[in-house]
Amino acid sequence: MLTVHHLGVSQSERIVWLCEELGIDYVLKRYDRVPPGRGPAPPDYKSLHPLGTAPIITDGDVVLPESGAIMEYIIGKYGAGRLAVGPEASNFADYLFWFHFANASMLPSQTGAPREGVEESPRAQFMRARSDRAWALVEARLGASAYFAGDEFSAADIIMGFALTTMRVFAPRDLSPYPNILAYLKVIGARPAYQRAMEKGDPQLTPLLS
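Request: output the structure for the sequence above.
Response:
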């Protein structure tokens, strides 16, 4: 049986959301941070895999970390390819770009950027500019397209969603300069599968949709 090991307030919310969108059978096992909130994963979570990071799934003898790998695994094995975009589609490259941009560029740009009001070193200035470029790119995309891969919701939206919402627990960002992102988050927040996922995975957290 597919088991999603969900660390509270973490990237593993993506996997819960994916399973809910696909409507597949899975077991959800929740773990609280120690201390709750922004603390590290508890020892029993870290023991699941040498990386000790979220997300992690188990499926029989399979123990798999990494958001992108897990999402491709679930879509391929349990989702019959649903929510992915195939190479025959005209928006295949768009799907691939945003699916990988989430973890390769968007999240690193946020974790490295200094908080507002903090004196910035040359490296901090570089990281802030990188973060600003990433947000500007997302804003432009969502002004030109309903969803990241095009006209239809896809796994690219799920993997990007965390970067625009819950990641702001750790890297606050005022979204008032980004009207396209705010409009998009209203659409995402209205999805029943997203609402179920957040209620199951992080019932104590009010989704950061504004």
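The two ends are 36 Å apart (CA to CA).
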